[in-house]
Design a protein that fits this description.
heterodimer, A: Alkaline Phosphatase, subunit A, 8-stranded mixed β-sheet, globular, B: 3 domains, two-stranded antiparallel ribbon
Chain lengths: 388, 490
């Protein structure tokens, strides 16, 4: 078949694929895993301010009695034992009462702000992580970002090419069929051949990572395993994004049991899987766990919580200066709450992310204030999040 | 004289691929075959005609929201409304037993997506159907936004489909006045700060939580994505003016009593677009150097009509059309010719489409474009002469290949460039699709060589013919055909 000259040039110029199997063992390259919790994590459940004098009164039936105390003030949800172990090892840094600049309560708009990095919804149509990766030097044809989903989420979308990998709903083709298809592509269609070579390389890495176990809340562990497999390769991607939904707990969210506890347990397992699978690369890894907003301080009439404002976020990994909670705690008294209902934000999430990107990936402060988080030059990155 | 090669280009590039027998019918006059499909009168495809109207979708969505509030116990507002509208406690209980959102909307969405796919695989006017998909993507209303989840199918049917062979001005007006767009891009939340409604609320001084300002979302996207395009010569002041002009453009929001009537099986007779005069920002506004005097809804209609006729719009539409039909980076000569046809005909989309068809560049390279997943899947199903699909089957496969039907990630719609779809993961999933549908289609009496011949004619390459010939099974033969380069491009 004939292919246009332009097409051939495009196929030769930019190989949109994973590198072939020449990857050796990892050594020292910084890695970032971003976990986006969609739906609005109840930060007061995940990281309970048990030392706040208003905690028990405000939380009512959702007040924790058996949380894992980190210090006199904060305690992790009982279904986060692995988080607790990381904290004790100095590898977990919880952040509380943080929020993006968004102050309304729409998931759609809030996730847009969370991922774009702009100060208002639909400020731009690309994401802050894509922009941050764009500042790194890259060997030709290597994507720095990997989305563990069929389509890259907004945070990874943008001018810099990123890869995707997702478990399949359809049966895998027989290897003989793949070989015959590849033969066709190599004869006449270099762009398809390059893509298929990339897919074969990727699939050989994640051998056995089919759809099994990759649906529902347990999916996060399966995806964490795949993410680790890619990240620990030399010249593998720098950053991976894993999404987890199901945090919009309007009704009967429960305490030690229930949908929120199940989700937190799956997240706990997912983080542990990531650490195990990364092996030595965990030392050079930063995990960032964020959500679009928190939830109301008090339970609603249905045993759940409604859309709120400030939430908790977590930094984890071998590079983190953890074992402490980062929070300018605003309190839970009626006067302290935002609009008498939500935890008041005292930390701009962008300042946390800017500090992490500056220290971990050496993104310049000029780029952080302009390209990564537009118009945020006046917002100083938080220092000292990572070990010096 | 018949020209099978040109027929194959016509069927694939302008339609959704050929069914068995199509190429011979097209070959007598491939260009005429396309153009004839844009006759002004065209009947609605049966699967689309069978869908419920937008009013029903709005009612069902609103009813579910009300029911959810009732179930969750934060129903104070609802109970006040019920009292005002004379809805009894018993009727409220009837609402609160409404089945779950997923049960309600997944089945509605699956039916509507199935209808779109079935209309495309069975269509005898596939070029017209392709145009529906093109314009529906140009004016994206996406179920990725929860508030708009129920509306993309009725938006496509009511705002897009009637105008694909009509005038762009009418399509722009219909799009901007449809609840799908008004909700998706938030215009129903936009009120003039100096409007009667806001002034009245300020006097009552308990306006907390009420709308008090302009939302620019729809106005900005009309200028950037629907008409002039980025760099089309507008500034932030124009966005603000158009947003002010469009305040009060909302939809007839169903009331609680309408949900009750709907639950009883009585249609409420709601209409869709509503101009809410008290929410409209009064006064004259300057847009692109032209002053639009106060005139209620007519002020906005005049502004949209002028935007539709703007030279930047002609150029932007021509660029998008030629990118869709001819090449990712369309030849400037083709863009200029199509833009001229658009301008000469005052935005007549039939004349504009004729100009695309008459571009020689459209017939030069049969493989210049990489099919998007939905086109790709539909063309395979047409080649295999599949008429109906199991419920939900096609949609799941297309979603797995990266293009969730009616759920584009943003208001700019799905990309029309190959690099967006040529990633390793997505190409691999297309091969999985090829195998799945190869296996489903394969029967002893089906000859993949014949299917390839019928679908591709002279574009069926010697390499692929040989691979199909040597396949170890009929299923593998079809898999190789569907996965072949010439089947994935158009």
């Amino acid at each position: 078949m004939q292919l246009s000259r332009r097409l051939l040039l495009a196929a030769g110029g930019a190989a949109l694929s994973f590198p072939a199997l020449s990857w050796a063992q990892a050594g020292g390259a910084k890695k970032l895993v971003l976990v986006v919790l969609r739906g609005g994590l109840d930060g007061l459940a995940a990281l309970a301010p048990i030392g706040d004098p208003d905690y028990t009164r405000v939380r009512g039936r959702l007040a924790q009695a058996d949380a894992l105390a980190l210090n006199g003030m904060f305690a992790l949800h009982p279904r986060l034992p692995k988080f607790n172990a990381l904290y004790q090892a100095g590898e977990l840094l919880p952040v509380h009462a943080c929020a993006t600049p968004y102050r309304e309560r729409s998931h759609f708009d809030a996730q847009n702000v969370l991922e774009s990095g702009a100060a208002q919804p639909f400020g731009r149509d690309s994401g802050w992580l894509n922009a941050a990766l764009g500042t790194l030097s890259t060997s030709a044809g290597r994507e720095r970002g990997l989305a563990l989903s069929a389509q890259a989420p907004l945070v990874l979308r943008g001018p810099n090419a990123v890869a995707t990998w997702s478990p399949s709903a359809l049966p895998a083709p027989a290897s003989d069929t793949i070989a015959r298809v590849m033969d066709l592509y190599e004869r006449s269609d270099p762009a398809l051949a390059t893509a298929l070579h990339g897919a074969i390389a990727a699939n050989s890495l994640v051998d056995g990572a089919d759809g099994a176990g990759a649906r529902g809340p347990r999916a996060v562990s399966a995806l964490a395993r795949v993410a680790a497999t890619f990240l620990r390769q030399t010249d593998g991607p720098t950053a991976a994004v894993v999404e987890m939904s199901g945090w919009d707990t309007h009704a009967n969210q429960g305490l030690e049991q229930g949908p929120l506890a199940r989700n937190l347990g799956a997240l706990d397992d997912g983080l542990d899987t990531l650490k195990t699978e990364l092996g030595p690369a965990w030392r050079d890894t930063l995990v960032v766990i964020i959500t679009e907003f928190g939830r109301t301080a008090a339970p609603n009439g249905a045993g759940g919580t409604d859309h709120g404002t400030a939430a908790a976020a977590f930094l984890a990994g071998g590079v983190v200066a953890g074992g402490r909670v980062l929070s300018d705690w605003p309190g839970l008294s009626a006067g302290a709450l935002l609009e008498r209902r939500d935890l008041r934000p005292t930390t701009d999430l962008r300042a946390v992310l800017k500090g992490a990107l500056a220290d971990h990936l050496r993104v310049s402060s000029a780029a952080l204030g302009r390209d990564v988080f537009p118009d945020s030059a006046a917002l100083a990155p938080i220092q000292g999040l990572l070990r010096a | 004289m018949t020209d099978m090669r040109t027929a194959a280009i016509a069927a694939n590039r302008f339609g959704f691929g050929a069914r068995p027998g199509d190429l011979r019918a097209i070959a007598g006059d491939p260009r005429g075959w396309i153009k004839a499909q844009f006759a002004p009168q065209a009947s609605m495809p049966a699967p689309i005609a069978a869908l419920p109207p937008g009013e029903d979708d709005l009612l069902a969505f609103g009813r579910w929201i009300a029911a959810r509030r009732l179930r969750r116990g934060n129903a104070e507002g609802i109970e006040r409304q019920a009292e005002r509208q004379g809805v009894s406690d018993e009727e409220l209980r009837m609402l609160s037993t409404e089945e779950d959102f997923i049960a309600t909307f997944r089945s509605r969405a699956v039916t509507a997506i199935g209808a779109r796919i079935e209309a495309a695989i069975t269509s005898s006017a596939p070029a017209r159907e392709r145009a529906v998909h093109f314009w529906s993507n140009h004016f994206t209303v996406s179920a990725a936004k929860p508030a708009a989840i129920a509306l993309p199918p009725s938006f496509e049917r009511e705002a897009i489909r009637p105008h694909v062979a009509g005038n762009f001005t009418d399509m722009l007006a219909a799009s901007t006045q449809h609840p799908g767009m008004l909700i998706y891009l938030d215009n129903w939340l936009s009120v003039g700060p100096n409007s009667v409604a806001v002034q009245r609320r300020a006097r009552r001084a308990h306006g907390q939580g009420q709308l008090t300002g302009i939302n620019e979302n729809l106005a900005r996207e009309i200028l950037e994505l629907h008409t002039l395009g980025v760099g089309g010569g507008y500034g932030q002041a124009d966005v603000q003016s158009l947003a002010a002009i469009l305040t009060g453009w909302t939809y007839d929001r169903p009331r609680l009593i309408d949900y009750v009537r709907e639950a009883r099986g009585e249609r409420s007779g709601a209409s869709l677009f509503e101009f809410d005069a008290p929410a409209h920002e009064p006064g004259a506004h300057m847009l692109l150097g032209r002053v639009y005097l106060e005139g209620g809804v007519a002020q906005g209609e005049r502004a949209l009509a002028d935007l539709a006729q703007h030279p930047s719009t002609a150029r932007f539409i021509a660029t998008k059309l030629t990118r869709h039909y001819i090449a990712d980076d369309p030849p400037p000569t083709a863009v200029a010719r199509v833009a001229a046809a658009y301008a000469r005909s005052d935005g007549d989309l039939r004349a504009t489409m004729d100009a695309v068809v008459d571009c020689d560049e459209a017939w030069a390279d049969p493989f210049a474009k990489f099919k998007r997943p939905e086109e790709y899947a539909i063309s395979a199903l047409r080649a295999a002469n599949i008429q109906t699909l199991p419920v939900g089957a096609g949609a799941a496969a297309i979603g797995a290949m990266g293009q969730r039907v009616y759920a584009a990630p943003g208001p700019d719609g799905w990309s029309d460039r190959a690099e967006s779809w040529l990633s390793a993961d997505l190409v691999y999933k297309r091969i999985e699709f090829a195998q799945t549908y190869g296996e489903r289609t394969a029967r002893a009496d089906i000859d993949a060589r014949q299917i390839g011949e019928d679908a591709l004619g002279p574009l069926f390459s010697a390499d692929t013919r040989q691979a199909v010939q040597r396949a170890e099974s009929p299923a593998q033969a079809l898999t190789l055909l569907f996965a072949s380069p010439e089947f994935q491009r158009r």
